[in-house]
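Incident log entry.

Two folding requests arrived from the same account within the same minute. Monitoring flagged them as a possible duplicate submission, but the sequences differ. Recording both here for audit purposes.

Request one:
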Amino acid sequence: MKYEAVIGLEVHSQLKTKTKLFSASNNDFGEDPNTNVSVVDLGLPGVLPVINDKAVDLAILAGLSIDCRINMKSTFARKHYFYPDLPKGYQISQYDEPLASDGTLLIEDNKGKDKIIRINRIHMEEDAGKLIHDISDNFSMVDLNRAGVPLIEIVTEPDISNADEAVSYLKKLRNILIYADVSDCNMEEGNFRCDANISIRRVGDPELGVKAEIKNINSFKFVKKAIEYEINRQTKLLENGEEVIQETRLFNASSNKTFSMRSKEDAHDYRYFPDPDLKPLVLTEERIDLLKNSCFESYNEKMSIYINKYNISKNDSETLLSNKLLSKFFDDTLIYLNEPKLVCKWTISEIIKYISSSDFSLDPENFAKFLLTLKDGKINNNSGKELIEKLSISNEDVDTLIDSLDLKQESSEDLLNEVIDKVIDSNPDEKNRLLDGELKLVSFFMGQVMKETKGKANPGVINGLIKKKFNIN
């Protein structure tokens, strides 16, 4: 009997705000434990939450980016559970009235075909604190810096069929959120993490199987391994006539296995009810339109422009859009040099190395001048890479820097013929083998000439001259 997996994902992504969702505490990662904490985060008696408007705007942008319907009214609820890192004894979240719903995200399946993953909802909620287990042998410590940090939870329908599709979805979603400047999506810092709901059913059976939820997976590699293990585990249970138990499980990265954490709660176990301290969140069309017109740019629309207008490959387009600074630098350079493929090639191979550095100083106009210098043959690719490294920090005049570094490409046929003759005379065995038809030795002689000229010779001219000397068409 054949079985198939049915997978739904819940992604928690921290919003890129300066302060927390309901308090004025700093939203900074890496501070000393319990230093970014206020009386609101601690849930002390008599304190009241106040919604962070910036977090609401970012959540709206996230919804727009994956084609969700933005709900004009959403409400906050109290989700009750008791855990040491949850000071209030409940988490403020959204339940039956989320901020956004009914979105879509397009991925490629294992056969390279487009597949739509439906987004059930995006809701806002506050994060919990963090338990630290490796400081003391006798106690677990609690750091509440993360308590109250603004999150969005993005929940799919059970449309994902295997681990590869899950990873493809997560990578695409992460790129979209980064491009929209909604979240840093830094998985190492835990501000982009995933819960996977996995069930198994007989192929063709319309009924869903009993699901297990794997909590807090924070890398693409671990998502793939956890889902593959869980599919295999559940399949073996059914094949042996055993039942799959609804439960919450964790993934052990050392053993590449999941293990049971607790029996899975249902919604009624959390005793949701509307938070009496927070009014319904009511949006206006004016607010949404203002966000669209002032700072919203769709990842999908931008991808379409890169592919269809500029004829850039899908992979290169995804690389450009994986970093908002990178894509903006590419777009700005096109203002000065309308050659998308050339600009893209050097942007994703070289600029990407430096653009996120605080020392990065190169402006798009000077980068365009550099590319024209390269195109005109004044320097070669190797010299270009050295030049870009210097320009990224100094943003000096390109011609001046080429002269000071002595990088100008040598294209004189008379001079290069002398160097080629010298190299051929110094390598008689390779010369005879090339005369006998071993054409790959053209590359050998090119390399030797480049070495003799300290990398400044024009590769195209060298190649032509060597072939001419050996009568190679």
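Request two (distinct sequence, not a duplicate):
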Amino acid sequence: MDKQVNTNKKQFEFGTFMRNNAVTVMFVVLCIVCMCFSGQSIQYVLYEMFSRLSRNAFIVLALIIPIVAGMGINFAITIGAMAAQISVLWCIEWNIVGIPGFLLAMAMTVPLASIFGFLIGKLLNKMKGQEMIGGLILGYFANGLYQLLFLFIFGNLIPLKTPGLVIKGSTGVANTISLDLGGKGTLKYALDGIWNLSFLEAIYVVLAVLILLTVFQMLRKRIKLEKAFTILGCSVALICLFQVSTISNFINNLFALTKVPMVTFMVVGLLCLFNNALLGTRLGQQFRAVGQNRTVANASGINVDRVRLIAIMISTVLAGWGQLIFVQNMGSFQTYGAHEQVGLYAGAAILVGGASIRKATNGQAILGCILFHLLFLVAPPAANSIFGDAAIGEYFRVFISYGVIAMALVMHAWSGIQKKKKQKAAKA
């Protein structure tokens, strides 16, 4: 009898896990299948994955706070990306490059994205329950104003003197902005180029930092000794393991093409810590309370509209910084199109990692970013190998991008219907 109960319990837990993580499991299977048929070497895939992860992870993590606050996926982060691109334009025009240029672009993005985020939050507070569709429409509206700014105002009402920044024989900003314009340096790899290590060296650095943080927490008595010794023991064991020549040679060969931009990943790590720290504060508790039930939160004395406004402003500023990281990694950007798919791809990525429009974590954001971009990487060559046409892979991954979001919305609507049925049954 006990065995049957345990078996039923395991089956229930497995079924619940599969139901809650259906999208993630599907993407893992698709990535494995496409990887097998793509014909690409593992070294090349890992090299591309680290590059894509470093330039896309930050902007995906920028979605977490609004989701926790119950506002769903903030598709209006495209407006934060616009603020970043305006800042980059001025840094190029003023010939402020390298780290000073990148830091100036970050500083300029803050007030622009904050103002945009404030206006977005004010409007979304009038659209409670429809925030995601509102964010999409706002993105389209803002894109029209952005086009007016870059096509007519810049280069016409506001002159631009840097060669190559204006369309030849016309007015307005060129279709593609290179971060090498100006002739006195570049913003390209301003962050990525500071400190690069091989994968194995990067692992040593991460383990060393983990050991130092654990010791620091032990001295401050903020961690249980059992947990601390487990972390320290595992870290030391891994360091010793990597000293074995066979293992170290295998890792070096596997990641032969990969160079890890340490500063960029440190910035991503800092954002993860920021999200966790913020959600642990009083404001973070208010985010959660508002996300769970606005009526109860309002009755508890929480200013719901203010909390939601702060969540959108934080997300918009972080999205602007994420776009700066993306742009400096690419070395150029399409003036009139680089920002358009930011919200869609970031939203799809975080959903792929197992997040929902009501709950998200740093781990889900990172996992989703890996799986989503891995599929983008291996789908076209796999389609070319199977069907003889790489375009099928392109169509497939675009379909997946929209399909994942549609599935998340359907599952959210279905869970809402089931919840209402349970409430009615309980009352009856």
